[in-house]
Amino acid sequence: FGRKYNSEIGKIRPAVIVQHDMLNRTLPHVRYKGVLVVPLTTDDVITEYKITVSKRENLHKDSFIIANWICTIDYTHILFEKGRLTKLRAQEIEELKKRICALM
C-alpha cells in the first residue's frame, strides 16, 4: 500500500481482491492497472465494517478485513511471489459483500 499518509493504509499487508477475474485478466493489456482491494490488519480496529478471519493456511495471525478501507492499488504493487494466503469462506465473502454494500 506504500507510504502511510494520515488515515491511509500503509506498509505491505495482505488484502482481499474484490474485483471480477475478467478485469484481472485484462490488466496486462490496459493502460491503467488498478485493482480494487480491501486490506487486512491484525489490529482490532473499532469499526462496524470489520470481518474477522481466523488464522489458517498461510495467514499466520487472526486478522480483520476492514471493508471501509476499500481502495484501488496499482497492479504492480501486488506481490505475487507471496501467493494466496488463504481463501475466504463463503460466509466471510457474503459478510464482506454486505459491508461493502452498506458503504454505498
Structure characterization notes:
The structure is a single chain. By secondary structure, the chain is of the alpha+beta class. It has helices at 21-26, 90-102, and strands at residues 15-17, 34-41, 50-53, 63-66, 71-74. The protein has a single domain, classed as SH3 type barrels, CATH 2.30.30. The chain contains 2 helices and 5 strands. The longest helix is centred in the C-terminal third of the chain and has 13 residues, at 90-102. The model has no long low-confidence stretch (mean pLDDT 89).
SSE series: EHEEEEH
The stretches of 5 or more residues where confidence is low (pLDDT under 50) are: none
The fold-level CATH name is SH3 type barrels
Question: Main sheet?
Answer: 5 strands, antiparallel
By secondary-structure content and strand pairing, the structural class works out as: alpha+beta
Shape: globular
Round the mean pLDDT to the nearest integer and report it.
Answer: 89
Our estimate of the beta-strand percent is 15-25%
Overall number of strands: 5
Number of domains: 1
Please identify the top-level CATH class: Mainly Beta
Number of helices: 2
Q: State the helical fraction.
A: 10-25%
Q: Measured on Cα atoms, how large is the radius of gyration?
A: 14 Å
